[in-house]
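Appendix B. Chain record.
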Amino acid sequence: MKNNRYSRKYKKMDVIYIAGPYRAKSEWQLEGFIQHAEKVAIKLWQEGWAVICPHKNTAHFGGTCDDDVWLKGYIEILKRCDAIYMLRDWRQSSGATAELAVAIENDLEVIYEE
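Structure tokens predicted for this chain:
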């Protein structure tokens, strides 16, 4: 591969996927889940990760496609990551639980929020 100024400037970053509850009983709770994921994403970017934050990427897309579309798509994205970050309360989310299983199956680094 040709060595150019861009390859020297942009070194490889590890990619981390944020997993945690999204579906909510109210709009208020949903917004809280999204805001928490956003805060964590910013922290991870500041630490040097390239961050995939599904909470922000498809925020308020509910009803535009079947849930299965989002779940399958995010599993595919997750498989291409280096690590997964499990938000607090991830156990209350069937989606996050499934994402963790995929991450372990694909030998991704797993980081749990304290």
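Further analysis of this model is presented in Appendix C.
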